[in-house]
Write a structure and sequence with these properties.
By secondary structure, this protein is of the alpha/beta class. The chain has three domains: 38 residues; 93 residues, no CATH class; 124 residues, no CATH class.
């Protein structure tokens, strides 16, 4: 990883340029004629000279065709192209992961990372005081709440990274060996966390179904499906339930901007419509007044693709898995 290395070959000494083919032809023909037909003249000499020149020209053309390098083909050392591609893919995955973390992760979260990834995150604008550099000698990623699983980190911790410390992928960038995953570190370890996942989902299912019974709530088919399947973030469920007691809501869609996230990760964002024109400003004011873990990262009125005014709300990652927190 790091800056791409370039292999430099030592310069070769300049060679004396070879004589041109016309010069070779003329010289050879003259010497041959001088040896064999110096004393002959007339038409026969001209005929022979023409024959020799023609033969030499054909030879020159064949030799030129064989020895001329193919200017349309560039010789690349074996493995050089694939190594360059791998470096570029790794750098692109780190940059995308860094931009996502800076945009989507709460600024008070401690993020563990290898030295190069930490530098990338700092350049993206994530607070340096919230970065936990994981030295090659670090025995574990504990002390962080998220860990950026670059190839370096995966090699460092091996299978223990997922099986012991960080079982949940909340976002992933790239593919194959150069992939970069953003993983949630379970406070009580992977086994305890995974054992609680079914209960967390059941809590979200119950809260979602209760929200759908509220007479002030209208929900699209996709929104209903998400709520009934327990796929909505607990913070959204609690906030929307409170908001629905105050005004009519139209739940258009639930979304998440987390590429490659595990299906166990709840959706942190929602697109909401109001029952009346005055409802959107009131909704925005209510959301912006929330504090602590219920304060959204994004809360604004915008227009959807059809030009309809809607309210967008989204919470930071990582969120709680259950209604009592994770």
């Amino acid at each position: 990883m790091g800056q791409e290395l370039q292999r430099r070959t030592p310069g070769t000494a300049a060679r004396q340029s070879d004589p041109s083919w016309p010069t070779v032809v003329r010289t050879t023909a003259r010497l041959w004629l001088d040896r064999h037909y110096r004393r002959r003249a007339g038409r026969r000499r001209l005929v022979l000279l023409s024959s020799v020149l023609a033969a030499m020209a054909v030879g020159a053309g064949l030799t030129f065709a064989v020895t001329q390098p193919d200017r349309g083909t560039t010789t690349v050392p074996v493995g050089a192209a694939s190594s360059t591609d791998a470096l570029q893919l790794a750098a692109a995955a780190r940059q995308r992961a860094s931009a996502w973390i800076d945009r989507e992760v709460a600024p008070n979260i401690i993020v563990g990372c290898d030295l190069e990834m930490c530098g990338e995150l700092q350049r993206s604008g994530f607070p340096a005081t919230r970065l936990l550099p994981l030295q090659p000698s670090a025995p574990d990623p504990l002390g962080a709440q998220l860990v950026v699983a670059t190839p370096v980190i995966r090699n460092q911790f091996g299978t223990r990274l997922a099986s012991v410390y960080a079982p949940l992928v909340i976002a992933s960038f790239g593919s194959g060996a150069e992939r970069v995953d953003v993983r949630f570190i379970a406070p009580d370890g992977s086994k305890s966390f995974e054992a609680q996942l079914p209960a967390y989902r059941q809590d979200r299912i119950a809260a979602g179904r209760q929200l759908l019974t509220n007479k002030h709530v209208q929900a699209s088919a996709s929104a209903r499906q998400r709520l009934a399947a327990g796929q909505v973030d607990p913070r959204l469920l609690v906030t929307l339930s409170t908001l629905a007691d105050l005004m009519p809501l139209k739940l258009i869609a639930f979304e998440d901007l987390s590429p490659g996230a595990s299906t166990d990760v709840p959706l942190r964002g929602a697109e909401i419509g109001a029952g009346a024109p005055a409802g959107l400003p009131a909704m925005a004011a209510f959301m912006r007044a929330q504090q602590g873990e219920f304060a959204p990262a994004v809360a604004r009125i915008t227009q959807d693709a059809s030009g309809r005014r809607v309210f967008i709300v989204r919470y930071d990652a990582p969120g709680p898995m259950g209604l009592e927190g994770s």
